Amino acid sequence: MPTFTLPIFLRRHVLFTLLNLAGLAVGIAAFLLVSLYVAEEGTVDRGFTHADRLYRVGSQLNVGGQSIKLTFSPDDLAEALKQEVPEVEAVTRVEQDRVMLGAATRYFEQRVLWADPDFLRLLDYPLERGDPALALARPDGVVVTRELARTLFGDADPLGRTIEVRHGPALTVTGVLAPLRQSHLVFTAIAAEAARGDKSWAHAKPRPWSDISGVSTYVRLAPGASAAAVGAALPAFVNRHNPPNPDKAGGGMDNMVSLRLDPVPDIYLRVKALGAVAGGDVGTLQVLGGVALLILGIAIANYTNMATAQAITRAREVGIRKLVGARRRQLVALFTGEAVLLAAIGTVAALALMELARPAFQGLVGRDVSLAPLPRGRSWLLPLLLATPVLVGVLGGFYPALVLSGYRPGEVLKGRAQAPGAGRVRAVLVVAQFAVSIALMVATFTVQRQVAHVQAAGLGYQPDSLYLISNLPADLARAATLKAEVARLPGVRGASLSSLVPAAESESLSSFDLPENTRSTLRQARGIASFTADQDFFATYGARLVAGKGLPPGWKPAEVDEDKPRYLILTETAARRMGYAKPEDAVGERLSINSEDPTEVAGVVADMRFQSARRADLPLMFLIKASGEHLTVRLAAGDQRATMAAVNAVVDKLYPDAEYLRRAFADERIESLYQSERRQARVFAAFGGLAVALANMGLFGLTALTAARRTKEIGVRRVVGAKVPDIMGLMAWQFTRPVLLANLVAWPVAWWALHQWLLQFTVRVDQAPLTFLAAGAVALAVALATVAVHVIRVASAPPVAALRYE
User: Fold this and answer.
1) Structural element, H or E, at residue 141
2) Rounded to two decimals, what is the model's pTM?
């Protein structure tokens, strides 16, 4: 029976073979894991039939030069598209919702899509039970995921069973969805929209197209139709249904509403708009892909370094092979083949490492990554697995093969074999390895500092100890009672109702005329973000008043202020946007906002940032009213658990039927704005650690080879009086010099890349020199520790033994 054996050289030098094998396995595992993740993210929603012709019709509200990009569209857009745009082959609507679904009095909060009967014909999510063409044609039909069916009905057949929507209709299960892949839509059930009865689209009153709710419209274009041509015709189409009015803020005759076509396969990764539930991040993919390639490059450089460093030990073998007739190209093929063989073994080991590392990697990227060999749409995986060892082996082994095959038999047999240029190549590769490691460490430190900085700096208020209850139903009296009862609780320092809180998914744009005798340099205010807040909002948040006296002491908004607010508060950016040279100039101005009765500017506060620092400070205007869907509670410092429990008890008492109240601390919600940046920081940290480990693994091997070759020299130095510290200093300088040079390479590259990355933020940290010095110091310390392992062993050996070493 034939047996598999490693080449003799690989078996003879076990330490270096294992080092190369470990390095290649780690590098290939990182590369393949990231390749799987990037491919999964890049193929989201590409599995639909005719995916290249599927589009979501998104909208944009344009007011005074400002705009809000939405995933939604006008409710009755679908019928108009079907009748007036011949390129549209099919159209459907869907509305995302959160409801309590249940059976037999057991209810569970679920994400549901209310959809047209044709929804599954366009976005054909596969069913494992039921007919997609008929599942939503039934007015009360609903298709559910396998997991939801098991939750509601156990192992019983779900088809034909009834699901209740609390405070809503009864639905009949007409289908069971196959396991869902990642998508821009997140749901556990798709229900026939007609089941909503009086609340369905068929019974809705016509509304102007500028009054956009939560309906999304999808179209499939006819074969050969041009999406660009359809998009170019949309402005005229919108004007026919929503005639433009002269912009009172001086914006001309541009329509307030515009439409666009978002390709369905691009939505998940590339379309960022208000109303999106799920989405990937192209920046994270680029970072992951680039870093994974760098890790693989370090592993390949390790192999190249150690192979060229070991070349002299194989010189006699090369000389003998040439004497018996071997040609150089044959030797190149032989030595490159050894590298490919080692890379193939490394790839097999990498598959095992991938399975071990998968849970940690999934936590790093925030989604499942399947290692199934040939799932749907992954036919590229097998060719990649076959090509990887060949590519890695050739890249890592070709140059050492050229060096080895270049030895001349005569010089080898006389003991004068040299590898010209190999030492310089090794030095360059070591510098490159450590430069990558240092750059990744600098990136890790900087991204972590930036994320911590934007969560606290420049907010304009104090987020600590702010407890938020969101999504309160529209009930002015009940909200007032809630605020009053919560404010009286021990441990509560303030409470406020508002329509804006940190990380709220809400946008607003207003334009209005300024009074004739205004102190502003303008006559119209354009693109002002308008929200509501009660009289205690600014004290609860700790906002800083920069102009005016604020609201009159003891004044509270009355019910009449809901329609005709008496006072408003501006931020500094809003005052500047409205044309006031100084914040003080805005105080006392009487503005006609929503009614003929003017609203007085009671004060100007420092800018308050409620969204990501990637956005410029919004010009905020707060109309002082008693209503709001968010309650903000300022808790006293210290142990806040008892106070939180008391607050929640009051909320549950007053809102026993409110299933969708969201409760969180302000700093938690602010942190959620920077998930992408935090993920990138984790990526840099994880792969930076790998880069340092791999670079020092290679350094460990090079140090071992160098120490072995210089054993006799070290013995002579010891005999003539050199001490162990002297030997350590000599060897350490040889190997730490490339690390020092690596800093000179890494620092400017890292500074430039991070400078470009930081430009996306309006609030950003300085690139402190200490960050770069710390990264360089860590790399140097680890390199010195690696070198010391071998140097101490060799330098501490008896000189006599060293002099006898061959």
Assistant:
1) strand 141-145
2) 0.81
- What's the confidence (pLDDT) of residue 39? 84
Q: Give every CB contact of residue 603 below 8 A, 6+ residues apart in sequence.
A: 545, 547, 548, 549, 550, 551, 569, 570, 587
Percent of the chain predicted with pLDDT > 70: 87
User: What are the residue ranges spanned by the domains of the chain?
Assistant: 6-39+281-453+673-801, 54-270, 472-659
- The residue count of the chain comes to 806
The tokens for 805 are: 């070493």
Angle in degrees, CA 441, 445, 447, rounded to 5: 115
Which residues on adjacent β-strands are paired with residue 221? 88
**Helical packing angle, 282-309 and 328-365, nearest 10°:** 140
At residue 571, the 3 state secondary structure works out as: strand
CA angle 744, 704, 723 (to 5 degrees): 85
* C-beta separation of 735 from 703 below 8 A: yes
Give the whole-angstrom CA distance, residue 445 versus residue 451.
10
> How far is Cα 460 from Cα 543, in angstroms, rounded to an integer?
6
Tell me the backbone φ, ψ of residue 164, rounded to 5 degrees: -95, 140
Q: What is the pLDDT confidence band of residue 775, given thresholds at 50, 70 and 90? A: very high
d(CA 366, CA 360): 10
Distance, in Å, from the CA atom of 115 to the CA atom of 112, rounded to the nearest integer, reads 9
Distance CA 603, CA 569 (A): 5
Is residue 94 within 8 A of residue 72, CB to CB? The reply is no
State the distance between the two ends of the chain, measured CA to CA, in whole angstroms: 39
Write down the residue that tokens 């969560």 correspond to.
Answer: 455
For residue 653, the surrounding DSSP H or E stretch is helix 641-654
User: What totals of helices (H) and strands (E) does the chain contain, helices first?
Assistant: 24, 22
Give residue 415's pLDDT: 53
| Phi and psi angles of residue 20, each rounded to the nearest 5 degrees, phi first | -65, -45
Confidence of residue 316 (pLDDT cuts 50, 70, 90): low
What count of other Cβ atoms lies within 10 Å of the Cβ of residue 356?
A: 10
In DSSP notation, 729-785 reads: HHHHHHHHHHHHHHHHHHHHHHHHHHHHHHTT-SS-----HHHHHHHHHHHHHHHHH
Structure tokens at 513: 């005329």
pLDDT single digits (tens) 205-242: 888 888 888 899 999 999 999 999 999 999 999 999 88
Strand-strand pairing, 189-192 and 106-115: parallel
HEC profile of 553-569: CCCCCCHHHHCCCCEEE
Q: How far apart are CA 713 and CA 727, in angstroms?
A: 10
Give the type of residue at 36. L
Sign of the four-CA dihedral 497, 501, 505, 507: positive
Mean pLDDT taken over the chain: 84
More confident residue, 403 or 329: 329
Task: Name the more confident of 66 and 303.
Answer: 303
- Write the single-letter amino acid at 265: P
Cα atoms in the 13 Å half-sphere on the side-chain side of 428: 7
Tell which residue, 116, 110, 166, 107, has the closest CA to residue 138: 116
**Quick check: helix, strand or coil at residue 217?**
strand
Q: In whole angstroms, how large is the CA radius of gyration of the chain?
A: 34
Cβ atoms of residues 495 and 501 within 8 Å = no
